[in-house]
Amino acid sequence: MSKNVEHLEKYQWKTGQSGNPSGAKKGIARASREIVGEDGHKLAELWWSIASDETRRDSDRLEASRLLAERGWGKAPAFAAMEGDPLGFEDLQEAAEDFRRRVLRLAPGGDEGAADRGSDSGRSG
Fold first, then answer.
1. Residue extents of the structural domains in the chain
2. For position 34, what pLDDT does the model report?
3. CB 68 within 8 A of CB 44
4. pTM exceeds cut of 0.70
5. Which pLDDT belongs to residue 55?
6. Is there a contact between 55 and 38 (Cβ–Cβ < 8 Å)?
7. pLDDT at 6
8. In 10 A of CB 105, how many CB atoms?
9. CA 80 to CA 5: how far, in whole Å?
10. Radius of gyration of the chain from Cα atoms?
11. What distances in angstroms separate CA 115 from CA 90, 94, 95, 124, one per listed residue?
12. What whole-number distance in Å separates Cα of residue 121 and Cα of residue 71?
C-alpha cells in the first residue's frame, strides 16, 4: 500500500461490514403510523372529507382526490411526447421492401429487377 493512503487503512470497512450498521432512523415513520394507524384508513378518510367538501378550495379538493386515486389505483403513467417516427415505420417499410426483393430473387425464375419495376407475371403494369 502506498504511503499516501496507509494512514486511512484503519478507517476502511472490513469485508462484510456494513457502512450503516444502525440503518436509517425510523422515528418519524413509526410516529406517523401510531397516529394514523398501520392501514392509513384515517388518512383516506381525511382526504375524502376534503375532496367531498364543496366549501374547500378546488385546488385542495383536487389534491385530495389525486392522493386518494394514486393510493387506491396507482399513479397514472406519464408519457413523454415523441417527435418523428417513434415506432420506426420508415425503417419497417424499408426492411419489408428489402425482404420482398430477396424473396423474389429466390423464387423460380425470380428477377430482382422485375420486382423493382413492379411487373410480376400475372399482374399487368
1. 28-75, 85-118
2. 83
3. yes
4. no
5. 96
6. no
7. 78
8. 13
9. 48
10. 34
11. 20, 14, 15, 13
12. 64
Q: How far apart are alpha carbons 47 and 52 in whole angstroms?
A: 9
Q: How many residues does this entry show for the chain?
A: 125
C-alpha cell at 44: 383516506
Distance from the Cα of residue 99 to its chain's centroid: 33
pLDDT score at 123:
47
CA 10 – CA 22 distance, rounded (Å): 20
C-alpha cell at 11: 478507517
Cβ–Cβ under 8 Å, residues 50 and 60: yes
- For the chain (length 125 residues), average pLDDT per consecutive 10? 71 73 74 83 92 95 93 84 76 87 83 54 46
Give residue for cell 440503518.
23
